[in-house]
Amino acid sequence: MNIVLIGYRGSGKSSIGKKLAAKLWLDFVDSDALITERAGMTIREIFEKETEAGFRSRENAVIHELAGRDNLVIAAGGGAVLNPGNVEALRKNGKIIWLHAEPAVLHQRIEADTATSATRPNLTASGGLDEIKTLLTQRMPIYKSAAQVTLDVTHLSIDEAAVRLVSLI
Prior knowledge:
Blueprint: E1 2-6, H1 13-24, E2 27-30, H2 31-39, H3 43-67, E3 72-75, H4 84-92, E4 94-100, H5 103-112, H6 114-119, H7 128-146, E5 149-152, H8 158-168
Parallel strand pairs: 1-3, 1-4, 2-3, 4-5
Helix pairs in contact: 1-8, 2-3, 3-4, 5-7
């Protein structure tokens, strides 16, 4: 069985996922990192050269591949659950956990990550906090329906979140 972490960019899927995997003696895989490694490009470059549709096609292939493996903690890209087929594939052999955080906290975390602006595209014309609020409004129902467990990580450290997830699993 896999543990799948979903949520918006900056929610801690990768950081918490690495800690959780270590605590559970599982392997950790970040779907976005796998996509960029295989493409030899950043997500921003994939969006520029192949558009969002090209990125989503790569993402779907990676999600289905990871869903077919076992004993993983998977950090799924923030938009991976927009495709119902991805959710279905991940559920077959996994428990899906939504890491939720308040928009202002997500914005702070994203801004604090200096690599984000160089490697990740804006997904709306506005960018920043407005983008986060807009996309969260659209994605929240999808995250809620995809997740079997939800953890609010707004005020939790990486270690605190990993400990809570172990008890929830």
